[in-house]
């Protein structure tokens, strides 16, 4: 045997820090090589010093019996794990085994007793026999022993059973024993509670009715965690009593059972009964039913979710369940049910003292109550129509919710894992002193936190010690619970589902048609066909659709055309049938579902785009800094389109890549527009940037392919000049791209060959972009070039300069006011703009003859270009106070004054208006009227395209289409108010146009 001093360094390595540890090991004789396994098992105990001190106390208490225990410890690894785990984790159980040393032998059992064996054993303590009177029931007994000593005897036996469970639960901490699942622990504790209260009830019956049969049928209903069979080691056991008849003696029996149970086992609490602590302790079944029908509050129905007959007359308990549970599953139909449950959770959270909120495992943010409230709310709302949710346990309910599609599988798995982790910590905290607690030790108490880490089987991970890992796990799980709680507990669909009747949720034809009519669907039978088709998909997807549809129908009912929106939703759902994320996002992200329905019920332009660019739907969610639809800067989008297409050598593939990103951007921009996230200038800028990028991508791809075919560099540089609304960066959804093509031969190249090559490039770009497609068209229009459509498609820079110096017409000068470099060789584009600056901003300003010509052309356009049958008051482009009026007025002012006011050198109508106001060429009120008219007309024109799905300039008359246009344009009132506003603004602007343009 080694000398005692050799143990000193080993004690520290074993986690023993008490000064007496080396001497204690020496006294036990555990200092030789034969004791290595004992020592290492001891070192893995949650508190090795506590375990060693307890062993020393047991050695003294056992006397000669110590040799037997030590022999077993050396040979029985399982017992060693149970005993060391127990006495190293719980000072209370350490005291228990010291007070009754032979009880260690109870830990040699290999299995936990069943509920039946527990009941039999607890009844055996009081030598109970079955009640044989007229009110006999399988779990109603009469105790033989009822004297004062019975409480101590029951307490001892209950503590023995609790000790065995704790030892089995803790064995894996010390030895490689199977981990006892959390649910197994909770169920066994509930079974033990049933057995304990069965014995307490037997004593109560014998005390109240010692010489006569039990006077009533008495059922004890377990509530709360006991009812759900997920009890803690130390917890109140909530009960409710039902008796027939509920007379004085029945109340006395119930009172005796509670007193005995509270003294021997745990606090028995009947506060969840009707009227709480001020109500009768025992009621008849009819009295319970009457109370819940008339007086019960929402929280009382929530409590009934976990009701379970536990002892006494189980048949009466089952009658209680059958009578009351139907009320539980209709409780969500009560007014303000969902907000009331949500408010109740907030009140519970607010009642936690501020200094304890970070340490509260149960009631604080990210605690156990967050999980339980979320799960119970989902059960109550959806359980009306789905009996699979009629379960009591939290984990079982989460599993059922996931199977039913009400919660995502990943969310359910994560929530379950975090819930079980916090329950494990709660159990370990309670075992230390067998006290009811769910509060973590303060972070300053590192020793207590280290003990908790070891008791919870938390191990170092290579970067952090066990304490660091525990703290990180607590934070991670709490944050995960809080995130998922917020996601599920405040899900918008809960309120809308709660408001619908059960038949409507199940899509009963009559109920569904009635509901659809009430929601404003004009063709409810057609809508019902869509609903049936959606809900008849693959099993899980069909269930999720059935869950979502009541909410989606309500969202659609707030849109201008719910019928078209539902059809569009069906098309999108069918197209994304193989996309597993789609329904999950709609279910879990309330903002996505609501925004998608608003878009689909408002726009014929977007559904096809969303089918082809479904990832945009994900952007309907809110990010940490606002709606994801707001997206990147237009310049970043343009760079993305150019870089994506540049990966391909084949022009068709390059343009296909650019089209794909354009499709995505059009869907994103249009969605943000409909949802009111973009104003008019932002929409125009974003659309123009996308058009310019696609032009640039197509041009680069065609030139690259041409150079590869030629086997050398291009004979000319090439640039695309934007004109019209493209040049002003003010494109709308239905706008074509007005352009000019310009080339410049490179040094040494033949000009004829260069121009021929450039024309070929321009033709290919125009043809490829204008190829038939189901996307919104990409029409390139070069009609504003010199000599119009009769002139060459491409000219050299020198040819443009010569033409503009000698032959330029007044309308061409005006058109050049919007010229802006868009794509291709930037240096060439800028040189072109320098050339045309002399033309569009002439020294001395435009001549009086040119002004008269402009006015003449405008008058001709007003009389001849307006489509036949069009209403000049509501034509957004050519009508009174419309876009043409505003833009021609602004351009006339530019022509007359830009030579002297450099800020007028601008292609944007709005920015030029700002410059006109700053230069005081017009009054601030006139500028404001013109600006408002331009914005109003542009907004209306864009809204027309979004609603109709095709370019339209004429506002419709009163009716559903006008209402839809008004809705998309941001007017939630009726279409008449929108139209009146449009007419008023454009009328006032027309007065300014006539005064300024015609002066």
Automatic annotation (TrEMBL):
Any one GO BP annotation for this protein: regulation of glutamine family amino acid metabolic process
Region (Adenylyl removase): 1-493
Region spans: Adenylyl transferase: 501-999
InterPro entries: GlnE, GlnE_rpt_dom, NT_sf, PII_UdlTrfase/GS_AdlTrfase
Cofactor: Mg(2+)
Calcium is among the record's keywords: no
Family matches, as CDD domains: NT_GlnE_GlnD_like
A GO cellular-component term linked to this record: cytosol
EC number: 2.7.7.89, 2.7.7.42
MF-aspect GO terms: [glutamate-ammonia-ligase] adenylyltransferase activity; [glutamine synthetase]-adenylyl-L-tyrosine phosphorylase activity; ATP binding; magnesium ion binding
Keywords noted in UniProt: ATP-binding, Magnesium, Multifunctional enzyme, Nucleotide-binding, Nucleotidyltransferase, Transferase
The protein's enzyme class: transferase
Pfam families in the record: GlnD_UR_UTase (PF08335), GlnE (PF03710)
Boundaries of every PII-uridylyltransferase/Glutamine-synthetase adenylyltransferase domain copy: 343-489, 857-996
UniProt keyword Nucleotidyltransferase, yes or no: yes
Catalysed reaction, written as an equation: [glutamine synthetase]-O(4)-(5'-adenylyl)-L-tyrosine + phosphate = [glutamine synthetase]-L-tyrosine + ADP; [glutamine synthetase]-L-tyrosine + ATP = [glutamine synthetase]-O(4)-(5'-adenylyl)-L-tyrosine + diphosphate
Domain Glutamate-ammonia ligase adenylyltransferase repeated: 148-319, 594-834
Similarity comment: family membership: Belongs to the GlnE family.
PANTHER family reported for this sequence: BIFUNCTIONAL GLUTAMINE SYNTHETASE ADENYLYLTRANSFERASE_ADENYLYL-REMOVING ENZYME, GLUTAMINE SYNTHETASE ADENYLYLTRANSFERASE
NCBIfam families with a match to the protein in the record: PRK14109.1 (NF010707)
Free-text function comment from the UniProt entry: Involved in the regulation of glutamine synthetase GlnA, a key enzyme in the process to assimilate ammonia. When cellular nitrogen levels are high, the C-terminal adenylyl transferase (AT) inactivates GlnA by covalent transfer of an adenylyl group from ATP to specific tyrosine residue of GlnA, thus reducing its activity. Conversely, when nitrogen levels are low, the N-terminal adenylyl removase (AR) activates GlnA by removing the adenylyl group by phosphorolysis, increasing its activity.
Full protein name: Bifunctional glutamine synthetase adenylyltransferase/adenylyl-removing enzyme
UniProt organism field: Antrihabitans stalactiti
Gene this protein is translated from: glnE
């Amino acid at each position: 045997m080694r000398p005692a001093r050799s143990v000193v360094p080993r004690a520290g390595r074993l986690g023993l820090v008490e000064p007496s540890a080396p001497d204690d090991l020496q006294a036990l004789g555990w200092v030789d090589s034969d004791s290595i396994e004992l020592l290492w098992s001891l070192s893995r105990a949650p508190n090795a010093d506590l375990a060693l001190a307890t062993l020393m106390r047991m050695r003294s208490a056992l006397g000669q019996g110590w040799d037997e225990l030590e022999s077993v410890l050396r040979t029985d690894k399982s017992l060693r794990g149970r005993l060391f785990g127990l006495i190293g984790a719980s000072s209370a159980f350490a005291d228990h085994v010291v007070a009754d040393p032979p009880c260690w032998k109870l830990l040699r059992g290999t299995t936990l007793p069943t509920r039946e064996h527990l009941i039999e054993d607890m009844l055996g303590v009081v030598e109970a026999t079955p009640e044989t009177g007229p009110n006999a029931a399988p779990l109603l007994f009469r105790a033989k022993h009822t004297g004062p000593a019975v409480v101590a005897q029951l307490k001892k036996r209950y503590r023995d059973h609790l000790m065995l469970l704790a030892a089995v639960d803790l064995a894996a901490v010390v030895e490689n024993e199977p981990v006892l699942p959390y649910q197994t622990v909770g169920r066994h504790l509930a079974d033990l509670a049933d057995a304990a209260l069965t014995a307490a009830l037997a004593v109560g019956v014998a005390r109240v009715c010692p010489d006569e049969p039990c006077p009533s049928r008495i059922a004890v209903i377990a509530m709360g965690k006991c009812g759900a069979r997920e009890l803690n080691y130390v917890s109140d056991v909530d009960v409710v009593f039902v008796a027939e008849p509920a007379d004085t003696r029945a109340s006395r029996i119930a009172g005796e059972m509670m007193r005995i149970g509270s003294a021997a086992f745990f606090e028995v609490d009947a506060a969840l009964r009707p009227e709480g602590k001020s109500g009768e302790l025992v009621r008849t079944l009819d009295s319970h039913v009457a109370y819940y029908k008339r007086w019960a509050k929402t929280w009382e129905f929530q409590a009934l979710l976990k009701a379970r007959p536990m002892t006494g007359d189980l048949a009466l308990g089952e009658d209680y369940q059958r009578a009351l549970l139907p009320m539980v599953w209709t409780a969500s139909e009560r007014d303000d049910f969902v907000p009331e449950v949500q408010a109740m959770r907030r009140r519970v959270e607010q009642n936690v003292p501020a200094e304890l909120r970070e340490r509260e495992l149960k009631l604080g943010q990210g605690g156990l109550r967050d999980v339980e409230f979320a799960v119970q709310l989902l059960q109550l709302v959806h359980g009306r129509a789905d009996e699979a949710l009629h379960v009591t346990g939290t984990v079982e309910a989460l599993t059922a919710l996931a199977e039913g599609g009400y919660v995502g599988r990943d969310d359910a798995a994560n929530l379950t894992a975090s819930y079980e982790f916090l329950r494990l910590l709660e159990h370990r905290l309670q075992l230390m002193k067998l006290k009811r607690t769910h509060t973590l030790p303060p972070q300053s108490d590192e020793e207590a936190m280290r003990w908790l880490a070891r008791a919870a089987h938390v191990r170092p991970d290579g970067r952090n010690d066990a304490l660091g890992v525990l703290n990180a796990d607590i934070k991670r799980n709490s944050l995960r619970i809080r995130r998922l709680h917020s996601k599920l507990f405040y899900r918008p669909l809960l309120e809308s589902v709660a408001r619908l009747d059960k038949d409507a949720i199940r899509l009963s034809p009559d109920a569904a048609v009635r509901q659809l009519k009430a929601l404003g669907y004009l063709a409810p039978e057609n809508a019902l066909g869509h609903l049936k088709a959606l809900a008849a998909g693959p099993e899980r997807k069909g269930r999720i659709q059935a869950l979502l549809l009541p909410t989606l129908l309500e969202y659609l009912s707030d849109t201008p055309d719910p019928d078209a929106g539902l059809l569009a939703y069906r098309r999108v759902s069918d197209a994304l049938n193989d996309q597993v994320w789609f329904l999950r996002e709609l279910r879990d992200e309330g903002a996505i579902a609501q925004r998608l329905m608003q878009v689909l019920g408002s726009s014929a332009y977007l559904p096809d785009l969303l089918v082809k660019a479904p990832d945009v739907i994900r952007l309907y969610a809110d990010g940490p800094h606002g709606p994801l639809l707001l997206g990147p800067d237009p310049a970043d989008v343009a760079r993305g389109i150019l870089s994506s297409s540049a990966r391909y050598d084949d022009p068709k593939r390059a343009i296909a890549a650019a089209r794909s990103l354009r499709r995505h951007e059009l869907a994103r921009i249009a969605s943000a527009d409909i949802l009111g996230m973009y104003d008019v200038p932002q929409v125009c800028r974003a659309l123009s940037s996308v058009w310019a990028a696609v032009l640039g991508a197509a041009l680069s791809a065609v030139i690259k392919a041409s150079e590869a075919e030629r086997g050398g560099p291009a004979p000319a540089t090439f640039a695309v000049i934007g004109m019209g609304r493209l040049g002003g960066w003010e494109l709308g959804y239905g706008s074509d791209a007005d352009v000019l093509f310009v080339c410049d031969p490179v040094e040494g190249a033949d000009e004829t060959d260069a121009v021929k090559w450039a024309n070929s490039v321009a033709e290919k770009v125009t043809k490829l972009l204008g190829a038939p497609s189901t996307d919104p068209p990409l029409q390139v229009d070069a009609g504003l070039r010199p000599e119009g459509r009769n002139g060459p498609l491409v000219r050299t820079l020198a040819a443009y300069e010569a033409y503009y110096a000698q032959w330029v017409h007044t309308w061409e000068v005006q058109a050049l006011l919007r010229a802006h470099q868009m794509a291709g060789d930037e240096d060439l584009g800028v040189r072109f703009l320098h050339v045309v600056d002399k033309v569009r901003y002439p020294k001395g300003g435009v001549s009086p003859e040119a002004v008269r010509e402009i006015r003449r052309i405008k008058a001709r356009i007003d009389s001849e270009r307006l489509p036949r049958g069009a209403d000049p008051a509501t034509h957004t482009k050519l009508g009174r106070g419309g876009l043409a009026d505003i833009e021609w007025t602004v351009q006339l002012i530019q022509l007359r004054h830009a030579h002297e006011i450099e800020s007028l050198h601008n292609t944007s109508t709005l920015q030029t208006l700002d410059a006109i106001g700053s230069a005081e060429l017009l009054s601030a009120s006139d500028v404001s009227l013109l600006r408002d008219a331009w914005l109003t007309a542009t907004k209306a024109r864009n809204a027309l395209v979004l609603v109709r799905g095709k370019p339209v300039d004429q506002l419709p008359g009163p009716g559903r289409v006008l209402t839809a246009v008004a809705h998309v344009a941001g007017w939630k009132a009726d279409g008449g108010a929108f139209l009146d506003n449009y007419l008023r603004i454009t009328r006032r602007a027309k007065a300014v146009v006539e005064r300024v343009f015609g002066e």
